[in-house]
Structures are given as C-alpha cells and as structure tokens.
Design a protein that fits this description.
Blueprint (H helix, E strand, L loop, with lengths): L3 E2 L2 H7 L18 E5 L7 H12 L5 E5 L9 E6 L2 H11 L3 E2 L2 E2 L1 E4 L5 H7 L5 H12 L33 E5 L7 H8 L5 E7 L4 E6 L2 H11 L3 E3 L2 E2 L1 E4 L3
Antiparallel strand pairs: 1-5, 2-4, 2-7, 3-4, 5-6, 8-10, 8-13, 9-10, 11-12
C-alpha cells in the first residue's frame, strides 16, 4: 500500500484567492492531461509510475502516464485521463497532496498528450507542430532551399559524436538542433519509434544523444527521422553514437 498523507498544502490551496472555489489554475483550459511536479526524485521511474497510477485511478480511467529519469525531467510526470471531468476532479483533490514525502503540484497540461491526439486523429510530431506554428508567424518570403527529408548533408558524414565507421549502436547522435529545442520535445519526437529509452540534450552545443533498447530499434528511428525538418531551415543530422 502507498504511504500517502494529506498535507497542509492541499488545505491552503483550496482557500488560496483565485477563481471559483478559491483555487486559481491560471489561464490553461481544462483538458485530459495533468502536469504533476515536485515529485520525489529518488524514486525509480517504474515505482513512481505505479504509485501515480494507483493514486490517480481512483478518480477515473487513466490511459497513460509519462515520466522520465533524466536529470532535466526528474520530479515531474504527465497523467492522462480518459475524461476531462475525471482530470478536473483529480486536480482539485490531489493538488498539494503528499505523495512519497513530497506535496504534489498539479496543473492542466499546456499541450494535448500524444495518446489523446492519436485517439482524436490530430496527432503530429511535436517538433513538426512547433515548426508549423513558427512558419505561420513568418512574413511570406522566397522559400529557403532545404535538403530533402532523407538527404543527409555532407557535414553529417563524420559528426563529432557519431561513429565515422557507421557501426550500429543503440544510441543515436543527433546534430543541427535549433536553440529552442528541449529534452521534452526530443522525447515526444523520438518516442514514436519502439524501444525509446531516453533523450539527453547537450546544452550549448545543439546536439543530443537518443537511447533505444537495442541497435535495430535505434536504426529504425535513425532511418525514419534522418533529415526531419525541425524548423523550415534546419534538418536533423543523425548518426550512430561512438561506442
């Protein structure tokens, strides 16, 4: 059984000045996905996800829980409900609730989760969606010349962190990332391929390492996303990482 106790933070949140009922959830509209942070970072991811599932399932059907163990994403998770009403009830009841010795901070997620988008037919790779939004804001000019989707630029032939001999690896080395890309965006892009384990962004160098369960799965993702247009001007350069 879970060692869960209701903390004073929950009581204080219920009476904090704000919207109806005294709770102010900001300007994010209610949706099926909850963003949960201030979670215990010492708990292993499988155990944490089981705890969250057991706790949140009491408010309705949970269809997905996303949590990662990288340093940048520790202490946070996304809980996806089947219905918005269930997500709302869980948010109201559990915001400030002490789970594994830490009071949770919960809010609606700012973006639709992949599992929900797949179900309603609106799913697009996260990075591609952001690129489309940026393109819509740009003034209409002469289109820039960009490489075809599966054309690897010559600069990618011997990437700094890639294997010049092309030896297969379960870790991919990704170059040519725009400055605004973060680990969550990379996770959403690469987790659509089976076997995804973790995305590690190297800050300041515009490169990342993407880990898969085995070499075959890494190769499938490499083939599928080679030359992917993260922005209208920037295509991903992907190689197997050095062993």
């Amino acid at each position: 059984s879970l060692l869960i106790a209701r903390g004073r933070g929950w009581v204080e949140a219920m009476f904090r000045p704000g919207g109806k009922g005294g709770v102010n959830y900001g300007d994010i509209p209610p949706n099926q996905t909850l963003y949960v942070n201030n979670l215990n970072e010492k708990i292993k991811i499988p155990e944490l996800k089981n705890c969250l599932l057991e706790l949140f399932s009491s408010y309705g059907e949970v269809i997905d829980i996303v949590a990662a163990g990288s340093m940048a994403k520790k202490g946070q998770a996304f809980v996806v409900f089947r219905d918005i009403s269930c997500a709302t009830n869980a948010l109201r009841a559990l915001n400030g609730f002490t789970l594994l010795d830490k009071p949770m901070k919960i809010n609606y997620c700012r973006t639709k989760s992949d599992v929900v988008a797949h179900e309603d037919g609106t799913w697009k790779p996260r990075a591609k969606l952001e690129a489309q939004k940026e393109e819509a804001k740009r003034p209409k000019t002469t289109p820039a010349l960009v490489p075809p989707k599966n054309a690897t630029p010559k600069a990618a032939a011997h990437p700094a962190g890639g294997d010049p001999d092309g030896n297969a690896s379960n870790v991919l080395f990704v170059e040519n990332l725009p400055a605004e890309v973060n680990e969550l965006m990379l996770t959403m892009l690469f987790r659509q391929y089976p076997g995804f384990q973790e995305a590690r962004l190297i800050k300041g160098r515009n490169v990342a390492f993407i880990e898969y369960a085995d070499e075959l799965q890494a190769g499938i993702a490499k083939h599928g996303l080679q030359g992917f247009m993260v922005t209208p001007e920037m295509a991903l350069k992907i190689a197997f990482a050095k062993q």
